[in-house]
Predict the structure.
Amino acid sequence: MNKPLNPAHNLAVDGARLWDTLMETARIGGTAKGGINRLTLTDLDRQVRDWFRVQAEALGCAVAIDDMGAMYARRKGRRDDVPPIALGSHLDTQPTGGKFDGTLGTLAALEVLRTLEASGYETYAPIEIVNWTNEEGSRFAPALIASGVFGGAFERDWAYAQKDRDGTTFGEALAAIGYKGPERCGSRKFSAFFELHIEQGPILEREEKDIGIVTGVQGVRWFDCTLTGRDSHAGTTPMAARRDALVGAARMVEAIDRIARSHPPLAVATVGMIEARPASRNVVPGEAHFSIDLRHPDDATLETMEDEIRAALAATASDLKLDATLDRIWSQAPIPFHSRCIEAVRRAAGLCGLSAREIVSGALHDAAYVSRVAPAGMIFVPCKDGISHNEEEFSSQEQCARGAQVLLQAVLDFDRQLAEGF
Amino acid sequence: MNKPLNPAHNLAVDGARLWDTLMETARIGGTAKGGINRLTLTDLDRQVRDWFRVQAEALGCAVAIDDMGAMYARRKGRRDDVPPIALGSHLDTQPTGGKFDGTLGTLAALEVLRTLEASGYETYAPIEIVNWTNEEGSRFAPALIASGVFGGAFERDWAYAQKDRDGTTFGEALAAIGYKGPERCGSRKFSAFFELHIEQGPILEREEKDIGIVTGVQGVRWFDCTLTGRDSHAGTTPMAARRDALVGAARMVEAIDRIARSHPPLAVATVGMIEARPASRNVVPGEAHFSIDLRHPDDATLETMEDEIRAALAATASDLKLDATLDRIWSQAPIPFHSRCIEAVRRAAGLCGLSAREIVSGALHDAAYVSRVAPAGMIFVPCKDGISHNEEEFSSQEQCARGAQVLLQAVLDFDRQLAEGF
C-alpha cells in the first residue's frame, strides 16, 4: 500500500480496438437494419456470453457465474482481499435493439482490462467486469432482473418463476443455455461499480458535451387512469347532453404535459397508452383509459406533480360529469449515486480534457440496483438524436472511445482513493 | 273521388294491443337483459318475418317480397291504380338491441292497419306496410341496405356480395331463409312513405314533447386523422425535445369538441376512436390516429366546421412539430324530408292534441333512402335518457301509442290530400 502506484495518466484505451469489438459482437444477433436482436437467455445470448468468457480468459481473468447468470471476469489486483472495483453493463438487447445499449458498457469494460493488461498496470483492488443478465426485460419481465436480485430488490426464486410468452420460465431458460452458476447472486462484494452507457436522450448531443457525469437516477411513478361517462349516439346526442370520457382524457393529456413543463428543466410526464371505449366511430365514448409516466430526480417534486395531476383530474371529472379513478401502480424513488463515484468520474473527465456536465439518468440501469449494496456511478456518452431501443441507435467511434477512456480513468481514480483510504 | 271519405278523427289506435304486439315479438330473439338480438337474415329474423306475414294476411293484406327481402303488406284502397301510401321500418336489431328501434315503426304500422280494418275505414290510396331488410348493418355492412337499393343508393348485386364475419354473403343468407322474392327492389312506387321511430336522443324527453316532427336527416362527414411526431424514451427525452403525437391528438379532440359547441344547437362532433403508437407506457408516442364524425342539418355549416378543424389541425401540427393528414372518408349531404309529409305529421300531431316540436334526425333511417324516390317523412317519439342500440332502450306504452296515433292520422291526412289532388 505504501508503494506508489504506476502513473495512470498515460494509459489510453484503444478506440479502434473497442470499435472493432463492438462491431464484431454486433454480428451475434445482427439485424438487416444494423441493429441487434439478442434477447436474454437465447442461444444468441449464449454465443455472446461464450465469446465474452473466451476474451476475458485470454486476458488471464477468472470468470465466475452466479445463479442468476451474471458473469464476473476478475483481473487480480495487488490486494485480492479487497473487494473488486466492478465495471460493466449487459449484453442482452431489445428485439429491435441497437449496437450500443448495454454492449458499450460491457465491451468498454473489456477494453479497460485489455488496456491495463497491455500496459502491465497493477491496480490496488481487483478489477472485475460484470455482464448482468436480462437488463432489458423484453423476454422476461421485470427488466434489470439480475442486478435487482444482486441489490436485494427481487427474490431469486420469484425471478426464476417469471415466464416468457411461450411459458418458459427464467430459471428454465437460464439452465438451458448452461449459465446457471453455483454462486448465490448478491453474495459477492464490490468496492464500487461503474457503468458506462449511452445517454438514450438528446441532452449531451444538443449541448455538445462529451461526457455525462451521472449523479443519479430520477424517480418514477406510474399510474393508470380511467374516466367514465356514458356511451351515446354520435348523431343524436346534443353536445350539451354528452358525458364524453375521451374529451376528459384529452384534457388530462394536455394537463399532464403542461404540469411537466411547469417544473423545468428536469420534470417529464408521458401518456403513452390511451384507449376509448366502445371504440366505435359513431359512438360518444363512455369510457377512456390512459397511462401516466412521471419522472423527476427529486421526490418532493414528484409528489407535487402527482398532487397537481389529481387536482386537474378532479376538475376535469367535475366539469364534464365524469367519474374518475387514478391508480398509482408503481413508484420508484429517485436514486442518488455515490459521491465518491461521481467525483471519480468528474476527475476522470477533467484528466482526459473532455467537456462534461452533470446529468440525471432518465432510465433505470443495472448501476441503480447495484447502488443499494455498493457505491455506484455511471458515465454517459452522447448518442445520435437521443435515439435508443432502436436499430438506428448510434454513437461514433470517438464518442465510444471517450466514454471508455473516462471509464478507465474513473476506475483508476477510485482505485487510488481506495488504496489511500479516501 | 267525389264521395266524401269516412270521418277519420274518431279513429284511434289501440295502445294496449300495440304494446302486447311489441312484447310478443320481442320474445323472438329476446335477451336475458330485456333486449333483442335478432340479426338480419338469421333464423330469428325468418321467424319474425313469418309472424309478420301471418298477421298481415289475417288482415286481408296481400304480402309481396322483393329481391332484397323487403316485405310489402298492402291493404287495398278505393283506387288501387294509385301508388300506395307506405309506412313501416325494420324488424332486424343490433346484437344487443332494444325492443323499440325499428320494431316500433313496423308494428305501429301493423297497428294502423288493424285500426283501419277494425273500423272498416276505406282509404283513397292503398296503404302498405314495409319491413326493410338489414337496416342495422350489424351483420352485413352497409346499414340500410334494402332501402338503399330501393332508393338507388346501392346496386343490388353489390349488396348481394356483402359478407358477414363467417364469409356468408347477403345473397346467400337471404336465399337461405326463403326471403329472396321475385320482385325487383325499387320497381315499386309509393305515393309517400312514413316512418315512426324512437328519437334515439334526449331532446324530446328533456323538453317534454310527445312528438318530433322530423324535418330531415342531418348531413354527416367522416374523417380519419393521423399525426406523426417521433417515438422517444419517456424517461430521457426532455419536454422541450419531444414531438408527442398524442399531445397533438388530445389538442384536436378538444378543438373538435369546441368547434361543435361553437355552432349551437344542432352541430355535433365526435372522436370515437383513438390510438397512440407504439402504445407503450414509457415511450413518447410518435404516432396518433383518431376518427372524426361531424354532423349538421346544413351543408354550409358542415363545410365551415370542416374548415375550422383543418385550421386547428394545421396550427396544432405546426406548434408541436408534427406532420398531419386528414382524410374525409365519407360524406352524406343533409336530406330534407318532403314538405307534404312534414305538414301531414304536423297536422296529425295537432289533431291528436299532442305537444310536438320540429327535430332533425341525428341518425340515418330507411326513410332517408326512400326519400330519394318518393315523398317521405318521419315521426319521432321520446325514449328514456336517449338510450338506444342498447338492451335498456325504452319508450313507454303511452309514448308508443301516441306515436302510432300520429302515424295513423298522418297517413290519413296525406291520403285525404292525395284524394283531393293537394
Chain B touches chain A through 63 residues (CB under 8 Å). The mean pLDDT of chain B is 95.
